[in-house]
Specification:
The chain has about 110 residues and is mainly α. About 65% of the residues lie in helices and about 0% in strands.
């Protein structure tokens, strides 16, 4: 996890995540994880689905190719890096909010 809580890598090591070192890889990973979440609910009931290389490599590579093409087509506007910066900022905000919520819960009865 990058931003689930204040101890995750995205929060602990912000210099390594802003901007994402490889925006297409980071965003592709997120997209593959979303595919896994969709697969967990494909029957209408939540089922555990393992997020494995064997199962999601093809989807990951397909998303990566699309993002590389998108990045190349929009490079003069830096769209992909802008999207990744927004994801980074949102992740840091959520991690901070989670940390603050936990601190408030711990101090307030």
């Amino acid at each position: 996890m990058w931003f689930a809580n204040k101890h995750n890598d995205g929060v602990m090591f912000p210099d390594h995540f802003k901007p994402f070192p490889h925006p297409a890889l980071a965003l592709t990973d997120i997209m593959a994880q979303i595919e896994c979440c969709i697969d967990e609910w494909v029957t209408g009931t939540c089922m555990d689905v393992a997020f494995t290389i064997q199962e999601y490599r093809g989807m990951f590579e397909s998303h990566l190719n699309c993002l590389r093409e998108f990045e190349e087509a929009t490079k003069q506007y830096r769209v992909l890096s802008g999207i990744c910066n927004k994801i980074y900022e949102a992740g840091r905000f959520v991690a901070t909010f989670v940390r603050l919520s936990l601190e408030l819960t711990a101090t307030c009865p």
